[in-house]
Amino acid sequence: MKYVIVLTDGAADYPVASLGNRTPLETAQTPAMNDLAKHGECGLVKTVPDSVKPGSDTANLSVMGYDPTKCYTGRSPLEAVSMGIRLADDDVAMRCNLVTLSDTERFEDAVMVDYSAGEITTEEATALISAVAAELNTENIHLYPGISYRHCLVLSHADTGTDCTPPHDISGRPIADHLPNGRYGEMILDMMKRSREILRNHPVNVSRRERGLHEATSCWFWGEGKRPSLQLFRELYGLSGTVISAVDLIKGIGLCAGFESIDVDGATGTLDTNFEGKTAAAIDALKRGRDFVYIHLEGPDECGHHADIEGKITAIERIDARVLKPVLAYLKECGEPYTVMVLPDHPTPVSTMTHARDSVPFVIYRSEGSDGTHTAEAYDERHAAETGLTVPDGPSLMRHFLGKN
After folding, report:
1. Domain count, the chain
2. For residue 240, what pLDDT is reported?
3. Residue 39 lies in domain
């Protein structure tokens, strides 16, 4: 049996007035997803427990079959694993975003213009982070470059207890009420202020300014945590796995779970990612005998954070046509039984531009057939709710998906 999950990050949403009170999922043309709904099993699953914050970290852990209330130690340590950073027991990792803040005399008076600095390229970002690291790194402070706007800060001989706000939670809002506080709040804020001065007239930013692009005007630190420890997926569920994602967080979760992680050239985590490359990597993994493949697509989430309704619809349609459809075609031809599931990790509503903890729609299709009791005419939030099937959490859904109930 082959198992494939197509994770449409942030695709779930609320009804949008300009779409006739439909959601992006309802509006998008998704024939492959809809076909699965008509012949499979649709319902809703609560991926984010009430006791944890709704994020791609906690939600993807849940979808992968782990209880985040028991195993979650913070977002950034999972990203650090993917970046090859070895964390000691007394290290604290934090995510470092390159962001665009409004140009104000006082740092505290700025507005969060863009949490991704215009989805800055990795090449540009590496140059900027290297410049900041040259000034800020010490014996116990280490800044590491990552992909696009996503980077990592490691504090040695440190502990958790610093309260920081994810920058995508405050898009378009003043930062004054969301500055770091707690254990290392003053130190982190000072680093953010110093980074702004270092970045202000860096050649990369001068070039972006001349091209009319958002500049990376500051570092923004958040998502602290300690070294993670997950039970291997094969110990929990008896399968070997492969994860395919452009996002260090998802790669890190997969690596901690014992999965193979495949890097795909041109995979950006945006609307313009290399969909065909991800699809080819998934099919290759299945051909090589992998039992379980987790294909993570970040585009809908990024568009949700930017309130880009049309972009979110386009991202969903591209996943349907350029990932799900060809993967299903291969599975039908390979001659082995298979089970496919499509779902988001969490909603990222365009109206709020951040993550929500609402239940998300899922569809499961089994090549060996289903009992037909929870089919739907289409795959979206409304039709999934109408089936009456609800699953309480991610681990329960994983067991159901794998037929281990």
Report:
1. 2
2. 87
3. 2-73+229-401
